Amino acid sequence: MKDKRTYNNLKEHGEDMTYESERKHESDDRGELDLSLLVDQHKREIWAYKMRESDWVRTKNQLDGNKKIIEEMSAQVIGLKKEIDRLSEENNNLRTIDSSHQELNGQLRKQITEVEVEMANLKAIGNNSPEMRNLQRDNKYLVEKVRDYQEMLKKAGL
């Protein structure tokens, strides 16, 4: 029988014909009650528990951080809601003021229109209007009457 460690060709010297490096040894020749085996098993179990514990601690830290963020954001939401209510009330007040100003503006425009019409009428009357000419004629007549009475009083000696 041929030994499997013998090489047939010169090229084969680079290959490991036993494939020992590829095989993983899983069999443990120690017995179940061997102390070193039990210690190794307990070390693996402790390692697994520590890994789970670190996951739990990480998860708890994330949970605590998220709770703190939620509390902060809840406080911000409450503050923003109060600000929204205040701004809404202020907006309603401003709308009320705006509507009253628009009403006053309408009334003032009516008054301005009335005054403009009155001013136009007064300008139309002016010095050349028939009413003004009648008033000037009446005024001249009254001035002449006052002079006549003054002369009569002078002649009478008063």
Describe the structure.
The protein is an all-alpha fold and 158 residues long. It has a domain at 67-123. It has two helices and no strands. It is rod-shaped.
What is the element layout, followed by pairings?
Layout: H1 35-125, H2 130-156
- What is the terminal separation in angstroms? 183 Å
Number of strands: 0
Tell me the structural class: mainly alpha
Count of DSSP-assigned helices:
2
- The sequence of SSEs as H and E is HH
Output mean pLDDT.
83
- Helix residue percentage: over 70%
Sheet with the most strands, sense and barrel status: none
* Gross morphology: rod-shaped
Question: What low-confidence regions span 5 or more consecutive residues with pLDDT below 50?
Answer: none
- Computed CA radius of gyration, to the nearest angstrom: 59 Å
Tell me the β content.
Answer: under 5%
Q: How is this structure best summarized?
A:
The protein has 158 residues and is mainly alpha-helical.
Pick out its properties.
2 helices; rod-shaped
